[in-house]
């Protein structure tokens, strides 16, 4: 669980950095990288939810 949370935090930092580059600096190449990070975050957050629900049932 700790490893998954670390991965989520790292991916969120990537999204944060890339989205700021896109919006503030106008770096168009940052857009696809930010979108890719959101897809990865979605997968990781679903996994977190699954693990969290399993642990709460114990």
From TrEMBL:
<comment type="similarity">
    <text>Belongs to the histone H1/H5 family. HCT subfamily.</text>
</comment>
<dbReference type="GO" id="GO:0003677">
    <property type="term" value="F:DNA binding"/>
</dbReference>
<comment type="function">
    <text>Might have a role analogous to that of eukaryotic histone proteins.</text>
</comment>
<dbReference type="InterPro" id="IPR010886">
    <property type="entry name" value="Hc1"/>
</dbReference>
<protein>
    <submittedName>
        <fullName>Histone H1-like protein Hc1</fullName>
    </submittedName>
</protein>
<dbReference type="Pfam" id="PF07432">
    <property type="entry name" value="Hc1"/>
</dbReference>
<dbReference type="GO" id="GO:0030527">
    <property type="term" value="F:structural constituent of chromatin"/>
</dbReference>
